[in-house]
Write a sequence for this structure.
């Protein structure tokens, strides 16, 4: 029996966006929202840089 998805396309996972805070000593920390990354950077004295990262899917298949 098929899915009851209302005639839409099959479910496709959305890309995950991660905000990565990199400090001058090369330590990195990932945050789920830009607000969290900015707050962590502010707590450290605004010395880090924030980059938007879209990691590959964990099972290495295209999503």
């Amino acid at each position: 029996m098929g899915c009851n998805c209302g005639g839409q396309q099959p479910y496709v996972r959305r890309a995950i966006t991660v905000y990565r805070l990199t400090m001058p000593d090369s330590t990195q920390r990932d945050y789920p929202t830009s607000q969290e990354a900015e707050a962590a950077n502010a707590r450290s004295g605004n010395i880090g840089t924030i980059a938007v990262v879209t990691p590959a899917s964990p099972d290495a298949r295209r999503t």
Helices lie at 34-43.
